[in-house]
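Researcher: I've been going back and forth with a colleague about how Amino acid ABC transporter membrane protein 2 (PAAT family) might be arranged in three dimensions. Neither of us has a model we trust, so I'd like an independent prediction. The organism is Neobacillus bataviensis, in case that matters for your notes. Sequence below.
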Amino acid sequence: MTIDLPFIWIAFKEIIKSLPTTLILTIVPLLVGFLIGIIVALVRIYKTRFVYQAANGYVSFFRGTPIIMHIMVIYYGIPLLVDQVSLKFNLNIQSSKIPIILFVLTALSLAAGAYLSEIIRSGIISVSTGQLEAAYSVGMTKLQVMFRIVLPQALAQSVPNFTNTFVGFLHTSSIAFLVSEKELTGAANIVASTNLKFLEAFIAAGIIYWGLTIIVEGISFLLEKRVTSYSRGGVS
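Model: Here is an independent structure prediction for Amino acid ABC transporter membrane protein 2 (PAAT family). You can compare it with whatever you and your colleague have in mind.
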């Protein structure tokens, strides 16, 4: 068996056409998950009445179960729910018309929210209480302290963890192929199946994933250097 090097380039050009889908499946869930994560982290830190236990259960469930299960449950469960509600209330809505990518984005967003909430929460509790006491002493409210003192520092300290999560979800997006959503891994499988050159196709896909990871890590390095400049007494 020999490797068809020219085919790697052919596969690369075909597979990279699915890059926008992979980026959507990575970036959108992380943005939505970031908003969910902040809310859940604050609820758990301040132990907000009525929703505190629900927030704990949400984080425990989505961090304690595989993401592939979330996708499958939502992919098969939501259409069933939509059809039943539509039938009951005569809404004339068909689940078959809902784009598959919405199911995947929903599952990944909920999972991202659980993981990011823990990152944000650990960042928040790492801020020294002395700073909080100083802020309260000059008349700042809890909301002002959180958004002007705590969150900026918490998020800055969490940049490496955010980067790891981004890379993790970049790779996790490949699961979408199991529900017929064509992203990088799915495209590689399709290209390979037409020529039975799976090794070459997945080498091409691996190069793309690796390149994206290097870019993300480079951006993270520059961002981390920038946001932590205050701790060095100046702006880099």
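Researcher: What would you highlight for our discussion?
Model: I'd start with this: The mean pLDDT is 91. After that, consider the following. The CA atoms of residues 33 and 110 lie 6 Å apart.
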